[in-house]
Specification:
The complex is a heterodimer of chains A (480) and B (250).
Chain A (H helix, E strand, L loop, with lengths): L2 H8 L13 E3 L6 H10 L4 H15 L23 E3 L14 H9 L4 H8 L2 E6 L2 E5 L2 H7 L2 E4 H7 L1 H7 L10 H9 L4 E5 L9 E6 L10 E6 L4 E9 L7 E3 L2 E6 L4 E9 L11 E11 L5 E8 L4 E4 L2 E4 L5 E10 L4 E10 L5 E10 L4 E10 L7 E10 L5 E10 L5 E10 L2 H8 L5 H17 L4 H14 L6
Parallel strand pairs in A: 3-7, 6-8, 7-9, 8-11, 9-12, 10-13, 11-13, 12-14, 13-15, 13-16, 14-17, 15-18, 16-18, 17-19, 18-20, 19-21, 20-22, 21-23
Antiparallel strand pairs in A: 1-2, 3-4, 5-6
Helix pairs in contact in A: 2-3, 3-9, 11-12
Chain B lengths: L1 E10 L2 E11 L4 E5 L6 H9 L5 E9 L2 E2 L5 H7 L1 E4 L6 E5 H15 L7 H14 L10 E2 L5 H15 L3 E5 L7 H14 L5 E5 L4 H5 L4 E6 L2 E6 L1 H10 L2 H8 L1
Parallel strand pairs in B: 3-10, 3-11, 6-9, 9-10
Antiparallel strand pairs in B: 1-2, 1-4, 4-5, 7-8, 11-12
Helix pairs in contact in B: 2-3, 5-6
The chains are: A alpha/beta (480), B alpha/beta (250).
């Protein structure tokens, strides 16, 4: 296929771009202690929480943004960002969907997520985050019966201070890295999940994150705690309206799995990637980490990353408990001028710990993608095992895929396997499919979905369908 | 059905076909033979729409439609299907999925809905058995790790499922042992009826013992220099191509 034609095809518009006009209560851009105090006060937080934030802020001031990633972007002016924006309706928080701002609901409709219907039909409890404030929570009662706590992190700070004090920042410390420190200082919302001992959460928990106010960074903070023998599956999905300015997103997700607990955390990320030149896309700097504290505990990260201008994200597992298990299944798709540096860390500390990494990277257009993975086996992790499979698929000849696998093996009884492949969707493959009557786009989708199927089968059913559709939209016309 | 008129084709500036004309009617089987480099494969590739070839003049029509104006997939949907000499491997995509996608794309182009899954599976299993292929083929990635013979069988399997109006076979016999060739030939023969036509490109007469052509054309240096019935193929087998070349030059 000719290059011009390809270029023409690669142009696609972000189908979920729009802005909802809702009166925001926003602080002016800039960050200092008074802004942090404002956030803390707006959230009705206790004094100790404010101190926690200010301590994080002080540490952040001494830190530098990391530069080791295979990413290229202009320096971020942190004083140009507004750190708090809440929809007006927040002050008299709605008790039910009827009380929710109709425009908000309209936004969800446009995104193809009719909240009430969808939640009811799919049996999914939705804690919808819209501009940093949880607007509505459904199925709370059913969860309550099971003893599961599912609420916004702000509510949790007010209502369950002991759990917050015990766990917040214990997986990702305040000063873990530059973006985590920033998040710790200014986080405005996010989800909190607590599953008591022996309880299997009766439904998939789902949160849809949206970013909707100009110049407002989103700093989500999520904390999930699974007590002994407890299980939960958490789904996180994201889309965002079209914007001109780069939007910073620096979330922190902490997972704690105690003895025999199992946490499955699935993400479909579809933030605005910017226009053809890469202008206006979301910067996504996320710290996600799981602590498998208990023996035989298990955490499974599954992610489908299609959006953002820049992605910097390494969901990790610290395998502390004996025979604990960490899994990472990832599909990352980049098109246009997107850049993604993503992967995982598996830190084996306990005896007999196991980890599996399956990473599928698809690069199209002028995009750049890197897989960065660390497998670290500590001296006490006798008989630890890791299997890593890392595949890249290139579409066209102006994109790049890079693999940076790091291994630190401190124990001779460990088994570590690494497999990697790079392939390209060839013109001959497309010709072959088209010669059978299949359109070029369908052929690309077919090949890409085939490439990703190992990961898709790890997603909860309804998410797998969505993910496949999302991939098709992302790669629309990305043929070469 | 297929009308090729005074076709000139170049590849990277070099003229391969130099005024080729050919008419194929429904129900007919045509064999194109000729020495290496004569342009045999180029003809079927151009009809199929391979973008590596440039048509500089001439025309191709299929059932009255201007083929050169059609997209690759539109040609396939119209019933022009090419059996590849070197079938392409597509890792990760199951054979059954390709078959289904292709069949439904062709049905959609005809304004028909998707074939229900049970009906589709029944059809595919029947054709598989005909091609003496194990059902496990369906779950394997398209052509990945297939032997030469398996790939060729797979090409014919696709033809049997998709039922093209004009099946073009590019050296479908290459790399086949005699048993595999018989199976492939049987598959091709099962496509023969009064509505369909077959255009085979081959190097050797041997295939024509199993798929008997109505017409044999000799392609030399980008032109059809001699046409005849199947006895021409036998003559080529015993005398080689040189005499035809000389005859046409005279």
């Amino acid at each position: 296929m000719a290059t011009e034609e390809m270029e023409q095809l690669v142009r696609r518009e972000y189908t979920q771009g729009f802005v909802t006009d809702i009166e925001s209560e926003t602080v002016p851009p800039g960050l200092d202690e008074s802004v942090i105090a404002f956030i803390s006060q707006k959230k009705g937080e206790p004094e100790w929480m404010l101190e926690w934030r200010l301590d994080a802020y002080q540490q952040w001031l001494k830190m530098k943004a990391p530069s080791w990633a295979h990413l290229n972007y202009p320096p971020i002016d942190y004083q140009a960002i507004s750190y708090f924006s809440a929809p007006k309706s927040k002050d008299d928080a709605p008790k039910s969907l009827d009380e929710v701002d109709p425009k908000l609901l309209e936004t969800y409709e446009k995104l193809g997520i009719p909240l009430h219907e969808r939640a009811a039909l799919a049996g999914v409890a939705v804690d919808a985050v819209f501009d940093s404030v949880s607007v509505t929570t459904t199925f709370k009662e059913k969860l309550g019966e099971a003893g599961v706590i599912f609420c916004s992190i702000s509510e949790a700070i007010r209502d369950y201070p002991e759990l917050i004090k015990q766990y917040l920042g214990t997986v990702v410390p305040k000063a873990d890295n530059y973006f985590a420190a920033l998040n710790s200082a200014v986080f405005t919302d996010g989800s909190f999940v607590y599953v008591p001992e022996g309880v299997t959460c009766p439904m998939e928990l789902s949160t849809y994150f949206r970013i909707n106010a100009a110049n407002t960074g989103q700093f989500e903070r999520t904390l999930i705690i699974c007590e002994k023998q407890a299980q939960v599956s958490y789904l996180e999905g994201c889309t965002a309206p079209m914007r001109d300015e780069n939007q910073l997103h620096a979330a922190v997700v902490e997972l704690v799995a105690l003895e025999d607990a199992y946490i499955k955390y699935s993400t479909v990320q579809n933030w605005y990637p910017g226009d053809e030149e890469g202008r206006g896309g979301i910067y996504n700097f996320v710290t996600k980490r799981a602590d498998c504290r208990g023996d035989r505990s298990k955490v499974s990260w599954t992610q489908v990353e299609t959006g953002s201008a820049i992605t910097w994200k390494y969901p990790s597992c610290v395998l502390r408990g004996k025979d604990s298990v960490g899994e990472f299944y990832s599909v990352a798709v980049t098109n246009g001028r997107q850049q993604a540096d993503t992967g995982t860390k598996m830190i084996h500390i306990g005896e007999g710990t196991k980890s599996t990494i399956v990473s599928k990277g698809i690069a199209a257009g002028n995009s750049e993608q890197a897989y960065r993975g660390l497998v670290k086996i500590g001296p006490r992790a006798k008989g630890a095992r890791n299997f890593t499979q890392c595949d890249s698929l290139l579409i066209g000849d102006r994109c790049g895929a890079h693999t940076f696998p790091y291994q630190e093996i401190g124990n001779s009884s460990a088994t570590v396997e690494h497999e990697a492949t790079t392939s390209k969707i060839g013109e001959d493959q497309l010709f072959y499919c088209r010669q059978r009557g299949i359109s070029e786009e369908d052929a690309v989708n077919m090949i890409v979905n085939g490439f990703c199927k190992d990961v898709f089968q790890e997603l909860p059913m309804e998410f797998a369908v969505e993910a496949e559709a999302l991939l098709n939209v992302t790669l629309e016309g990305a043929v070469g | 059905m297929l009308e090729v008129k005074d076709l000139h084709v170049t590849v990277e500036g070099k003229e391969i076909l130099k005024g080729l004309s050919l008419t194929v009617n429904p129900g007919e089987v045509h064999a194109i033979m000729g020495p290496n480099g004569a342009g045999k494969s180029t003809l079927s590739a151009v009809i199929a729409g391979n973008e590596g070839y440039e048509v500089t003049s001439g025309s191709i029509t299929f059932e009255g439609q201007d083929v050169l104006e059609m997209e690759i997939e539109e040609r396939a949907q119209a019933g022009l299907l090419l059996g590849f000499q070197y079938p392409v491997e597509i890792p990760g995509v199951k054979n059954v999925y390709l078959l289904k996608a292709a069949l439904n794309a062709q049905r959609a182009a005809r304004g028909e809905g998707e074939m229900p899954a049970p009906e589709f599976m029944k059809l595919v299993r029947e054709k598989l058995a005909y091609m003496k292929m194990d059902p496990s083929f369906l779950q394997r990635a398209v052509n990945e790790g297939f032997s030469g013979g398996e790939k060729k069988r797979n090409e014919i399997l696709q033809m049997l499922v998709l039922q093209p109006k004009l099946a073009m076979l590019d050296e479908i016999d290459s790399g086949l042992d005699i048993d595999a060739m018989k199976v492939v030939a049987e598959g091709v023969n099962s496509l023969r009826d009064s509505e369909r036509a077959i255009l085979m490109v081959t190097h050797y007469q041997r295939l024509l013992d199993y798929i008997e052509p109505d017409y044999v054309h000799v392609l030399v240096d980008g032109r059809i220099v001699k046409s005849g019935d199947k006895t021409l193929a036998l003559e080529l087998e015993s005398r080689g191509y040189e005499w035809v070349t000389e005859e046409s030059a005279a």
